[in-house]
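To assess whether the prediction recovers the assembly geometry, we first specified each molecular entity separately, as shown.
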Amino acid sequence: MLQLYGQEFTSRMLLGTAQYSSPDILRQAVEASGAEIVTVSLRRESARARTGQAFWGLIEELGCRVLPNTAGCHTAKEAMATAQMARELFGTSWVKLEVIANADTLQPDLFGLVEAATVLSAEGFDVLPYTTEDLSAAERLLAAGCSVLMPWASPIGSARGLINKTALQSMRAYFPDTPLIIDAGIGSPSHAAEAMELGYDAVLLNTAVAKADDPVKMARAFAQAIEAGRLAFEAGLVEPRDMASPSTPVAGTPFFKIDHAS
Amino acid sequence: MQILLNGERFATDASNLDELCATLGFTDAKVATAVNGSFVASAKRSVTPLAEADEVEIVAPRQGG
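The predicted structure of the complete assembly is given in tokenized form:
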């Protein structure tokens, strides 16, 4: 079971709710994914359109735990105010904390992130920080009060997968007991499976499902890949080798001559 | 007076944030508010006065990744 801030979850897939072609496709994709946690945001509400009111009705129907984000915030102050608004709006102390450093890469501003995480944790938030694989920032975030870390695989929406796999392996090894969720950059189910095989606890994604030709089918594909990756991690993967090693027993091979073995 | 509502100039006679929300039809809506960059809880809107050039944010749930 996945455990995050005292809550248990069967699914290890967290799904974003943005960019779907229709509310109905979003609903079907969430159901197909089996996700128990969906990310949401907050945006300026128009008195005429009242877009947010209808969206909230849909989210309530899904019955999932919501994880509000602070997407688009470029300073700790903006992120903190957004988190506070989200806590009241969604009735949850959980927040996917994003402080963005750069509009082209959407890379986390690790300094602002630690600053905001420190304040929000002290205010009783359960902070799930969108971070990088940087171990020193990770330690600062844990010291700030975070119990979960969410490193990127690659830039948000890039679909590049695990571009720094070695560092992500180090992070997993360095924090064996901290729930680690890969957040951002996942493009295909194989990327998600790869993250899970490394021992990551869960995967959070949005674009790869929402922008697929068939988001509902893709949601199912990701769910199966994430489950497969987790099973593989639990089963224990064999170590890679540089040279071949016969899987069929050598002993008793017909016509075997000793010089074949060298 | 003129305020900045959700990033746009807006003329209002509302003396506090709660009145502004009511004017906009948000009394029972699922919205959250901030004034000049700081969160204002719904219970505090009626005691949060508005002044010329205040920057007011009124937000609602939206799709997110």
